[in-house]
Amino acid sequence: MFSLITTHLPLTLRSPRVLIAIGATTAAAIGVTTYALTRRKPSAEELERERRELLARTGRITDGTIMDTMIAEVRKPALDLADDPEPVRQGPMTPEMIVYVYRIAGVTYECAQDVTMLPELVHGVRTDLPIQVRYAPQNPANSIVVAETWSGLRLGARAPVPYPSDEDELRDPI
Q1: DSSP 3-state assignment of 161?
Q2: So where does this one cross the membrane (predicted)?
Q3: Cβ neighbours of residue 162 closer than 8 Å, sequence gap 6 or more
């Protein structure tokens, strides 16, 4: 086997151990390159969902205010070309974007969150009440107001819980 190794190589490269190490290193480099080029890259929606999950899990909470909600208007088709179609509104609309503002250490941040992927969590959002904002302590501009597992929004009016009357207390002793 040693007779197959060419003699014009330097003495350090003639050793079988060195040749095996070079081959293993080359194979490892080809494997890493192949993995890096062929692996599935996450979509923009997946990256945004991961960011929301991280902030919902580890972010700090502060108070904020909703400045604006952007709602896509549904237009009814115009029957006559001269008629301008008017927006159709049916009760509380679901926003697509929430613009909010909050302060941290004397700095005011104005941010917006795209909530098109979370319609069931923002339906009936109230803009006249304060909200809670979760932000990353290392980057306070990285923030959210709603995620799959957390919400800092005040939603529409809920049915009030009735207080027990005096008659109910007499019937139900504790």
Answers
A1: coil
A2: 18-37
A3: none
